[in-house]
Please model this.
Amino acid sequence: MFESGFEVLTGVDTRPEYLVKPFGSLKDPLMMISSYPTADEKSTVHLEYATVNDLSNIGMSQLYVKAGYHDVQTRKTGMLHMVIFPRRLDRKKVLSSSAGVLNNMPRVLRILWQTFAVHCIQLSKAVVVCVSGHSANQLYRAWLKEQNIAHNIIWAFGIKRTEHKLPIAIQGFTDDTQTRMSRLVLVVYRIEAFTRTRTQRPTDMQRNMVMRERFLDFANVLIHQSAPLQPLLSTGAYLFQTSTGILIPLQAF
Amino acid sequence: MDDDNSASDSDFLSIEDAGADSGDARDEEEGGSTASSDDEDEDERASTTAALASPAKPPAATTAKTVPQIINDKPAILDPIDEDFKAREESCLKLNTPNNSLFSTSLSNQEIMELVRNFTPSLSRRDRRMADFINMVRAAVDRADPPTFPSIESEPQWWASTNE
Model:
């Protein structure tokens, strides 16, 4: 699939021109952080998309739609989107992918791009940050710890029950007294996880998913005073097709 | 409409409470199962000791039961499981109703804020800072100075200049 001589690592395209670029402004009030662009032809229609706002990627497309960027009249400001590793990765080809795909990347390469992502996180003026996935969550919390920024992590049910559990939100404060909040970080699963857990009947897991999505609605209300397409990710309330852009609200019979 | 929403919110609250309770209940069940296994071990040890101390007795003769008797003699331990399952079934059905706030597709801004605020009960067992959290988020967003995107009013009247 890739040109010979360029595929140094299994599952990663290392051609220099295949770096996807960040998109958005450091002044945008909303920042989104995801893990890496995918190189799976089943999830990404157009593998040569140049920027991280890959609307041909099913997961990213759903995330942008959820943020309200599916319609020109919905939002007045843009959104900064960062990936912490901007090379396309094929999760199925990366060895030992179950333990974390990025951990299998060369350390020098990984640190270079993580440093760049952290630099943009530091410079960003965003008051609300949406972190999608475990890798992005780990990077953001490592940055909080490294910069010694006062913060409060909010867990579901008030405690961290498992090692890899994602928090609901992280409050960043301007001072150690934790009286003035500087940034709200909302942590959600990867969009693929929302898609995987859609069921015909509401289960505990689906309630968890919907509640996480409701926090995204909450962020939309805070920033833009409107929350369109609720709940899009975690239920089958909409028919959404990436390749054609069809978005039809469905109604329960 | 407001009544419906408030009713659905209360439904959501009860379900969230039930979820929190079920989580704790699960923990308790885990603890309970451990305790029960210990009890079983003790019972086994006690029965073994008793068997060693006393001579073996012939097994009691079993009497054949009719089907209605077996149904009436169902173990009592099955009842709580059935009730729990029934409650979960009802809660699922309740969530499936169109007016349920959690799965509703047309909540107002205020209803979304209330929904997140109502998430407090599941956090409040160990963390009662959710209300402060909401207030601080509001204050931070209000205090922030979002960049202003050039509006239509700020655009030059290019059509006028073209006409000239």
Observations:
- The first helix of chain A runs from residue 58 to 67.
- Residues 1-7 of chain A have pLDDT under 50 and may be disordered.
- The longest strand of chain A covers residues 181-188.
